[in-house]
Amino acid sequence: MKRSYLLLIVTLLTVSAIKAQTPVQLNDDLAGITDSLFSKGQKWGLTFTDAYKDGNYSPLKPLTAGMLIFINSKIAYVQNMKDIKNSKPLRMAMLDLLAFEKQMISEDFRAFELFDSTTTKEKLQAALDQLTEKSKEEDAYVRKVAAAQQVYAAENGFTIEPGKQE
């Protein structure tokens, strides 16, 4: 049974990784990943706000776990993508972003899962400060993807819609 699930997952990743056939489709696939990451991060942030108010941080755990599952699946997806008209720099920038996100979520987001209503303000503030610093680093990875997107679009004769650039 476990083997069947593994085979299904590998098959789905392989089939979906070959889905993109044109540069625009590949770009859209990768933009969808960053859009989903942003959405999941927003949801975590809103849940954190509630947790901060009532001291119950347990609702963060399934969100963090879901984010890590999503990131791991997208790392495999991007790694299995075929090159489409010199997409390697864009794909590598995306993999760098995903690796950073995985590390940040595994360490900095998960730190809050250990908190409860007895957690000191100092400990909470230290974790928030660490997360804030990581968020600044995250911005550099997002800009790297956006720059790679712009180059890829220019090389392949399409433009990134305003507001769609990552």
Q: Which key terms come to mind for this protein?
A:
single chain; 166 residues; mainly alpha; 75% helix
Q: Globular, elongated, flat, extended or rod-shaped: what is the shape?
A: elongated
Strand coverage percent: under 5%
Order of helices and strands: HHHHH
SS-derived structural category: mainly alpha
Q: Helix fraction?
A: over 70%
User: How can the largest sheet be summarized?
Assistant: none
- pLDDT averaged over residues: 90
* Separation of the first and last Cα atoms: 40 Å
Number of strands: 0
Gyration radius (Cα, Å) is 18 Å
Summed up, the helix count is: 5
Q: Classify the oligomer.
A: single chain
List unreliable stretches of 5+ residues.
none
What's the number of domains? 1
Structure report:
By secondary structure, the protein is an all-alpha fold. The chain has one domain. Helices cover 75% and strands 0% of the residues. It has 5 helices and no strands. The longest helix is centred in the last third of the chain and has 35 residues, at 121-155.
